[in-house]
Amino acid sequence: MKFGVKAWSKGRARAGVIQLIGEMEIETPALVLSTRKGLPFFISPDLFPSLPSPDSHFLHVSPLHFLEGLTPKTISNIGGLHQMLGLHEFGFAAVPRDSIVCLPDCDSTNKTGASFETPCGRLLIKPVEYMKMISSMNPNLWVTLADEVPAWVSEKRNKTSVDRTLRWLDDCIALNSIGGAVLGAIVGGSSVEERRRCAQEVAKRNVSGYWIGGFGLGESMEERSTLLNTVTDNLPEQKPRKICGLELPEEVLQGIASGVDLFHSTYIYHLTIGGFALTFPLDRTVGNVSTPQLSDIGSDGTKINLKATVYRKDTSPIVDGCSCYTCQNHTKAYINHLLNVHEMLAQTLLEIHNTHHYLGFFRVIRESIKDGKFEEFWEQFIGNRREHIFAASLTA
Amino acid sequence: MALRFEILGRFNRARASQLTLPHFVCQTPLFMPVGTQGTIKGLMTSQLEEIGCQIILGNTYHLALRPTSEVIDELGGLHKFMNWTRALLTDSGGFQMVSLLHLADITEKGVTFQSPVDGKPMLLTPEESIEIQNRIGADIIMALDDVVRTTITGPRIEEAMYRTLRWIDRCIAAHKRPNEQNLFGIVQGGLDPVLRDICVKGLVDRNLPGDICVKGLVDRNLPGYAIGGLAGGEDKDSFWRVVAQCTAALPEDKPRYVMGVGYPLDIVVCSALGADMYDCVYPTRTARFGTALVPEGVLKLKHRTMADDTRPIDPTCTCMVCKNYTRAYIHCLVTKDAMGSQLLSYHNLYYMMKLSRDLHSAIIEGQFPEFVRSFLQKMFPKGDVPEWVCNAMEVAGIDISLCCAPFSSSQD
Lengths: 396, 412
What we know:
The structure holds 2 protein chains of 2 kinds.
Chain A: E1 2-8, E2 14-21, E3 24-28, E4 30-32, E5 58-61, H1 72-78, H2 81-85, E6 91-94, E7 103-104, E8 114-118, E9 121-125, H3 127-137, E10 141-143, H4 155-175, E11 181-186, H5 192-204, E12 209-212, H6 221-233, E13 241-244, H7 249-257, E14 262-264, H8 267-274, E15 276-278, E16 303-305, H9 325-329, H10 332-340, H11 345-370, H12 374-395
Parallel strand pairs in A: 4-14, 5-6, 6-10, 10-11, 11-12, 12-13, 13-14
Antiparallel strand pairs in A: 1-2, 2-3, 7-8, 8-9, 15-16
Chain B: E1 4-11, E2 14-20, E3 25-28, E4 30-33, H1 45-51, E5 55-58, H2 60-65, H3 69-74, H4 78-82, E6 87-90, H5 94-100, E7 105-106, E8 111-114, E9 121-124, H6 126-136, E10 140-142, H7 155-174, E11 182-187, H8 193-204, E12 224-227, H9 236-249, E13 256-258, H10 264-272, E14 277-280, H11 282-288, E15 291-294, E16 297-300, H12 320-324, H13 327-333, H14 338-364, H15 368-379, H16 387-396, H17 401-404
Parallel strand pairs in B: 4-14, 5-6, 6-10, 10-11, 11-12, 12-13, 13-14
Antiparallel strand pairs in B: 1-2, 2-3, 7-8, 8-9, 15-16
Helix pairs in contact in B: 6-7, 7-8, 8-9, 9-16, 11-14, 13-14, 14-15
């Protein structure tokens, strides 16, 4: 893996390039797409070419997904992730936590391993087992085993989580038998001191980048920036920083402002299964608040709920001018019907559009950083969204 | 009439043809996947085109409930609604009513049932079925028939058959778009050859006298015929005999559609006997239960022996699923993740489309008996071809003795 920072904003936000597979360069800040067992939830692989490339080629995989039916030995026999999934031009980042069904369970974690709630029940994952999974999968990037704790744990528990995470980091590196790039896990909960300590310690290790854990587990947005800044201020500039748990556009912007480069967000998944489609404008012009129409009853200006009856006969695409497969081929009326009759195709079409749209959001952010206008973009984006939601609430 | 049916090749009773419909030029024999609610479960129209689907089915009953035929009509018809540019076929709605609603009652007027929405009594008449199908706009529409399960015996079957004939007249009269939509009649009569025969003759004889001729009808005969009332649990021996009898009696120059069929073996046999079109939920439904269609029969991906099997589902299949994925990986997906369902549906439909293409080209290239033998040898490598298949092939004039003999050379 190769990574380099190419442009800076006035603050900590930076734009860079990461190279995972061959010559394929992915620009950062980048969205790492959620998968289930390595493939999107609903978009089958033959439909991948319709998604923006190479933006859509960076996938998140949780090794824990395969505990439900595929042993590490079999995965090795098949030849690792890329071979198993038929996705040779894709970069995979392996992280145990997927923020949907594989969630850290800090109460059951102990000194021997990290506990997760998974579809197979609660499992204790020890470094040795974890590294067996990683080695069989052979991902491009993988994260060391971490003890993530939510914001409300005691100081003592939080300190223990940092100690454990550091110990497991060293264990994982020692057990490492594959060539993939290691992201050292950094925890520390809501304590600035612990965050600093952990970051400084991990920065001393021989890792290719950093994974910032423990966020999206109960901390408030207000305290988050301070904690993130503490971490990134103690990390070398030229190594990538990845994070889980920052899902919404506002949270992503917050993370970018603190110097994070890679985001695994499950926002697309939750929107998709809820029947929502992203519609917020992707251009950077000022004053994007349109007058709310009666037809916006299913919408809050940022996304629409396609189950709403107002779309029953709406023959327009989700977003006018959107070049995704869904908007080029199907209408809101059709998706509304599919949702009403509980047809899986609805989720496929929505996941395609939402992925396309959210990747577009990241692209616009990168452009603003390169133009040196990230801070303005951030402020304006937040301002617009507040106005949209306010206006939508007036018509409700 | 809004279709052209041109036979391009034959082997005894089997025929390969070009069926030109308003939206697509099709090649038969062909299999039609069932897109019940305006979608094939989990697959996009672009994927269906890639696989080679020519015609897909929509279920009138489901679509009339949601989103309603009026909405579909307002939005430009089902083709536009689901963005499918090739051919569509809708059924009459009768079968679902009888099979899905437990208080359906059939009278001369039509099918009375309890609305699943609010429980009120509703009536589906032949006229209304055609009206709904006119609004939906499929290339082929089906007459409302009095469907009776083949497992039923007695006078009910005769009653149903005669009523079907009376209803076809009402359907023809009610059909407002004969230049764009082809109304197929359905041969009923249970397993009774006499009744079937009467029904066939009745349908064929619907050369309507000029004074009943519906305005706009170009041709007075029905554009095509379906063989209904089968695929409902009857024994295979009766099944093939009914198909054989009907195909023998129906006109040569019109397409023959065996409704609700089905298993690949059944399709091969029916094609040998002279049928052209088939539909069934089986390939997609069985995919959702983790079963793949393969030349040997079926492969149950859920089975624990699949968990470490690193072979593709079918090494001879060229679909994207078999080219990229192992049985082990599909095993960990099936019945747990939507993707498993999608990938298997894709493979199964690919298999069915290939079967359709292979049947068509085998007949045209004069290789049909060889194809049938090869098909049976792969499916019954021990030579244990079921007796009904042997009997049917005898009537079809195809020599499969090499496949059936217990000590056949195919075992070497």
